[in-house]
Amino acid sequence: MPKSLLEQLPDIVAQGRKEAEKILEGIESRHRVSLQTREVVLPAKDAAATDWITAQARADRREVFAPGQGSLLESAQPSLAATQAEAPWANRLIYGDNLLAMAALLAGDEHTPSLRGKVDLIYIDPPFDSKADYRTKVTLPGLELEQKPTVIEQFAYSDTWSDGTASYLAMITPRLILMRELLADTGSIYVHLDWHVGHYVKLVLDEVFGKNKFINEIIWGYGGGGAPLDFYQKKHDTLYWYSKGERWIFNKQFRPYSEGTFRTGFKAKGMENSLNPEGAGLMDYWTDCPKILSYNAAENYQYATQKPISLIERIITGHSNPGDLVIDFFGGAGTTAASAEKLGRRWITTDLGKPACMIMRKRLIDHEAKPFLYQAIGDYQVEAAKATLGRDFRIGDLSHIVLSLYGALPLPADVNPQRNLGQISGLEFGGRKGSKTLVLADSPNKLTGLATLKKAIAQRDNLMGGWDKVVVLGWNFDPAIGEQIAGLNDKRLEVLVIPPDLMDRLKKKGGIDKLRGQVRFSSLQYLTIHPIAHKTDGNTETLTVQLKNYVLLSPEAINLDDANRIKLQQIANAEPLALIEYWAVDPDYDGKVFRSVWQDYRGNTANDADALRVVTTATVTALAKAGPRKVCVRVVDVFGFEAEVVTTVGAV
């Protein structure tokens, strides 16, 4: 007879502790998980507004930095930067698995210290309905698509619920343990759940934080919806508040007296000031934070699990002070980050969903947030491989698997020491008789870019007497890869994308043989722009950037059904720039970190009145330079794919 959930719970908690302990041990190693800064966002919602470059001297922008890549201060005043042991704080929006994000935050790096014991408040609103449908609606001009979760999201979700509530508890337990490690001694955590799993997670919270650290169970009641005929309508969520230590931050809050209470108090005492002038102290049931947001409400970002600002602001106000650090590891629509920004708190938010991260980035720009970092998990595929192949795996093992699934036979060891080269005969891949194709599987812990492509071409031309063609298989790409491929203009070079969910699928299927023939390696997308116009007026240079074309070359990688894929192809052919969700310009690109000083995105009507399209021309002002300047233009499409163009402007 299978064990009940209560019988399984001790094993679930014990296993969760082991998983968390492995991560805590790993943060001390040389190969610890890190964060890669994809973008330093300097919000500039209105193109007509003076941008950050001209509004502030570089020395005044010291709060904007890029961990692991240097800071704005370093590029402007190296002598000052050299004396600064630690980079200043910048808020962070992190895309990726929150377990890996926690590991990176606990580990820290050479530019940012570990946040172990430094977080004042954690609020999480994890998914708590196994039957929820997290599809994303993508509205394009004259067309609405329904996108299923990305493959990475799907596998994460299926892992969470594969064995029902037991799997959910196995997912949440190590995360709660790491969250406790991040909390300051006076810190608090709020865990937001409902009737699906709330009472089970309460038992785990008691184990992780201690029953004596449970401060309040808060009921958040809300209205709306119909009334069932055979049971009471479920109209409340539960918030579990735990502290880490014996003391915690608590700022008492009040609600206005009702008219009846005010009249009663006045009548009984005969004088108005007998009542607390601030109102009645809040109790542990809150019914004044409406859940249902009107469709046209300014704060409504059309995100399925979005929570109202009034609820989150109450939690942040009650359990942190200005300047304190607030983290949300299930960021969703970004309400926690937006509220923390408004209330003067530092913040970090993470999410595994690309749609969520796009909504959060746009929302923060909408709210004219202070500059923040958009980061991703470094070496994500390496961490996934460790989970599947064991902690002592080698990159060569992973390359061998990729080559095999692509259908390539490995080259002899004497010419293939890294085990990342394979071969395919013409007949095997439908080519002409006697043709030979070299296949290179690139490493997951670096970006596939121009250097790799040139190396692959050289190996094609020289290795073992030469080959007819070379195929490069990559995990992560230099955002300018499309431009680099076009620049090489080599018809005997092909670049394909290794499916990002490959390790998850391998783990599910149980081996290469069961997955063979089911893996699709897709092609890349790319961006083109018109020549950049520029003119100098004194100390200011004005750049006019105009988008030309965006080509989505891998629609098969998007999780759509056949009918929606046909619709997508039609609009991609007719109006390709309509696929762009967000784009930004860095007029002083250093080749390492993208600093966006101008942005536009769908839904931003400050630049035009069209909520379904971005503007296609940007006018950016920058401090004039005597020599050439490198300009980078980056786009993100409605599905989360990125592409960029880097070009040089001015005299060389």
Q: Which features does this protein show?
A:
S-adenosyl-L-methionine; site-specific DNA-methyltransferase (adenine-specific); Immunoglobulin-like; 19 helices; Rossmann fold; DNA_methylase_N6_adenine_CS; Trna Endonuclease, Chain: A, domain 1; 652 residues; DNA binding; alpha/beta; 11-stranded mixed β-sheet; N4/N6-MTase_EcoPI_Mod-like
Tell me about this structure:
Residues 119-359 form the DNA methylase N-4/N-6 domain. Belongs to the N(4)/N(6)-methyltransferase family. It catalyses: a 2'-deoxyadenosine in DNA + S-adenosyl-L-methionine = an N(6)-methyl-2'-deoxyadenosine in DNA + S-adenosyl-L-homocysteine + H(+). Its EC number is 2.1.1.72. This is site-specific DNA-methyltransferase (adenine-specific). The strands form seven sheets. The chain has an eleven-stranded mixed sheet, sandwiched between helices. The chain has 652 residues and is of the alpha/beta class. The relative contact order is 0.12. It folds into three domains: 5-30 and 89-249 and 284-379, 3-Layer(aba) Sandwich (Rossmann fold); 385-444 and 446-515, Trna Endonuclease, Chain: A, domain 1; 526-649, Immunoglobulin-like. It contains 19 helices and 30 strands.
